[in-house]
Amino acid sequence: MGGFREATSGEAEFLAELVAAGLVIESGVPGVYGFNAVYADIRERLELLVTRNAADDRPEKLHFPPVLPRKTLEGTGYLNSFPHLGASVFGFEGNESDAAELACVAARNGPWPHQAQTDLVLTPAACYPVYPAIAKRGPLPPGGLCIDVGSALVFRNEPSGDPARLQMFRQRELVRIAEPDTVAEWRNKWRDRAIDILTSLGIEASFSIAADPFFGRAGRLMSISQREQALKFEVLGPIASPQPTALASFNYHREHFAHVHGIAMADGSEAHSACLGFGMERCTLALLKKHGLEPDSWDAGVRKLLWG
Amino acid sequence: MGGFREATSGEAEFLAELVAAGLVIESGVPGVYGFNAVYADIRERLELLVTRNAADDRPEKLHFPPVLPRKTLEGTGYLNSFPHLGASVFGFEGNESDAAELACVAARNGPWPHQAQTDLVLTPAACYPVYPAIAKRGPLPPGGLCIDVGSALVFRNEPSGDPARLQMFRQRELVRIAEPDTVAEWRNKWRDRAIDILTSLGIEASFSIAADPFFGRAGRLMSISQREQALKFEVLGPIASPQPTALASFNYHREHFAHVHGIAMADGSEAHSACLGFGMERCTLALLKKHGLEPDSWDAGVRKLLWG
């Protein structure tokens, strides 16, 4: 497992409160939790609020599972940037005697023998399966398209004691693939919209130009370049950490995914792409932290926005 | 990857129809698909129909992600029964030079070096995370409890060309933990109810005592014993295979999970458990096969049951 990131005292205290209230159920592995109906209801209402806000994009809805063909990930260069966050799926390969050995070692919690890599990885970001699916359709009509992948589960190998840093979590994600200007304009619109949505829910949302956690020394250069080009925006809000936490993230990929997957506009010009994702667990936690652990007692205006 | 199971001609033809209609999106790996909004809408409406039918169980809703602590799985003996279906999550372990090697090998689609087993596996059945969560609460009150885990994603390492045999799929799952008689009665009620639900949707549902696909020679004995004790029921319906396909499954675990996780009744007596799961993709496919690929043209009675 990746290096464990200790919780700050504020983060640990908030997690303990969430667990004591039954909202969050610890699994024994940091960053992997169950949730009760109260928590899930807030999350689902937030998802619907984003859906209503996305209506004017007339997005096409597509749904993908949280596993992705290994080849899809390999083709994107993900492992150049985030080898430490990736997760590969292994499965048994062997005969009956190998299976008996596997069961025996596993019963003692040892590292499983006779595991071989499968054709699958865990999906690291909800937009990854979109590009190959769109590429198959051929060139895009003028204005391109907007895809809504719903509330999609993604995985990052980064165990942490912070309840706002999960290993498997939900991104409420939209993807725009179109002419460069159209994509840039769409991302700016959603940056402002995300601030409005979160502010309307009583969260002190702020905007920041951000960088991804690229790996290693070369990664530091990638981060600098990403910031200089303002390719990644985040909308931040307070949860339980000393600094505000990213609640939504907006990535402008320029031509990267379109080139990798062979997506172009019908007139032969270049297609660009951008995606945005609301971190659903983080947004839910920000609400619980701000308004308290009992949604029935939340401010009427906030309740109306979520429950109508 | 596990041995690939070829599709029959009927299965391959149905998959091709689903793909041509845009309902199903191929990923490049068999058993891993994307779905469009029409498909997802049918699935979600089916989920709500099950939810309405479960109302008299007054189930408590809990939600879990599709990864599970490795220790939880190891403690249940899963690897004695299904080593071939299990999937373990691996992640990168190494320095910058190892990361560079990983990226280089992966770019050529080779087997990834520097992958180490993490503390997580993919959840093989939606009920697995329920037992440790309930065990933490201490002894159960008389009558026990019913848990609704919603529509939960699970994984089995069994690539197949049959569109009804996915590697990652959704189980609409309920779990009952209580006194033995209560659990047995609940399972019988739901067996009849599942037949009624599916029949009301125009599906020729039939009941069967079934067995799990236990591994190897010892597994054949386990299957015989499971059938003799009638521990597994299935409700079957026609999709595109020569034989009917299991659309819902009802497993009576007797004391197994309660013992493993230390769950007992408050009076000190033994707790039993059972679970039931509707295979959401299979139920969706059964409807599409029976009524055609355009839900707008389905029989009014079926539409009313799903869309109200």
Describe the structure.
- The structure is a homodimer of 308-residue chains.
- Chain A is an alpha+beta fold and 308 residues long.
- Chain A is 38% helix and 26% strand.
- Chain A is built from eleven helices and twelve strands.
- Chain A has a seven-stranded mixed beta sheet.
- Chain A is globular, with a radius of gyration of 21 Å.
- The model of chain A has no long low-confidence stretch (mean pLDDT 97).
- At the A-B interface, strand 2, helix 2, strand 3, strand 4 and helix 3 of A face strand 2, helix 2, strand 3, strand 4 and helix 3 of B.
As a percent range, the share of strand residues of chain A is: 25-35%
Of all chain pairs, the largest interface belongs to: A-B, 73 and 73 residues
| Oligomeric organization of the protein chains | homodimer
How would a textbook summarize the main sheet of chain A? 7 strands, mixed
Average per-residue pLDDT of chain A, rounded, comes to 97
Placed side by side, the strands forming the largest sheet of chain A appear as: 3-7-8-12-11-10-9
Distance between the termini of chain A: 43 Å
Rg of Cα set of chain A: 21 Å
CA-based shape of chain A? globular
